Amino acid sequence: MKNRNIKFFIISLLVIFIFTTLAIGLKKESTYTTENINIENIENFRSKELFSNELIEFTSLFDQNEKFIILNIWASWCLPCRSEHEFLMKLSQNSDIKIVGLNYKDNQENAKEFLKELGNPFEKILIDRKGLIAIEIGAYGIPETYLIDNYDKKIIKKYIGPIDKIKMEKIISILKL
Amino acid sequence: MKTTLKLITIFIIIVNSQNILHANDQNERLDKLTKNLRCLICQGQSVYDSQSDFALSVRDLIIKKIDDGDNDQEIYSYLKTKYGDWIMYEPQLGKNTILLWILPLILFIFGGLLIFRKAIIKLDKK
Questions:
Q1: Cross-chain Cβ contact A14/B53 below 8 Å
Q2: What is the pLDDT at residue B18?
Q3: pLDDT (tens digit, 9 = 90+) per residue, B23-62?
């Protein structure tokens, strides 16, 4: 009888343990975000700047004095990029905001044409011909926008999909402008 | 003259066959790696199956990493630092996945013990 009780106890304990662990696991937030990736630890790809054609390093995009820098991944063939462009233009009008671009798998001429038509909000644009730099910063697709703390070299916010009015206002409120 | 030509032909065939073999090895490795990677923006597709820009970039990246001499583990852990464990189809043994790997083993041992005990009781009765 005593033996039976011990067995029952062990089995119950095991079952409780398994169920609690699984229940905790279910509730645990496991969505992975690339916020908190350190920009300095990123493999420093070299690529051409869209307009100057000069070979520059990825991190040189952030060689600026500003505390916050916005990195936007875009392409001329991407329709949502077209819709978000006006908001990037509005953001760039604020002298405290610096926006740099990563031109993703695009044709250079088309990219230049796109900016000629809609305006150029970017300080510098790095060409990502094969999409490898985008992977380096954990991008899924385009458009994607990263808010980077340039002093701590950290991605503090990532917006997947086009920037709209709400996201633009959020960015402005984060930057406390 | 003829012998020289023959020798040159044989040399070219040997060099090319080695290249082809090497390319085949690389393709097999690429297929194996991409089959175990989830295309994060597709539904139910691996990087191997998908033709999305994301999957194509991941494939290009793996080719680059293979050329750089990285081993499979290095490539997987690189992608995990960028996209988290979710990118792998086969979860690796770790703090968060220990139960996942150990639970079947516990159940197997436990079930085995039960069957073993029953068999012994049956034998005893006989």
A1: no
A2: 72
A3: 777 888 899 999 999 998 888 899 999 999 999 999 999 9
Contact B99 A22 (CB under 8 A): yes
Q: How far apart are CA A159 and CA A141, in angstroms?
A: 11
Whether A80 has its CB under 8 Å from any CB of chain B: the answer is no
What Rg value do the Cα atoms of chain B yield, rounded?
A: 25
The terminus-to-terminus CA distance of chain A in angstroms comes to: 74
Q: Residue B35 belongs to a domain with what CATH number?
A: 1.10.8.640
Give CA A96 to chain center in angstroms.
20
Q: Examine the domain organization and report whether B83 and B31 are in the same domain.
A: yes
Asked if residue B63 and residue B23 are part of one domain, the reply reads yes
The ipTM assigned to this model is: 0.74
Tell me the shortest Cα–Cα distance from A115 to chain B, in angstroms. Answer: 22
Q: Which of A139, A100, A149, A134 is nearest to A120 (CA)?
A: A100
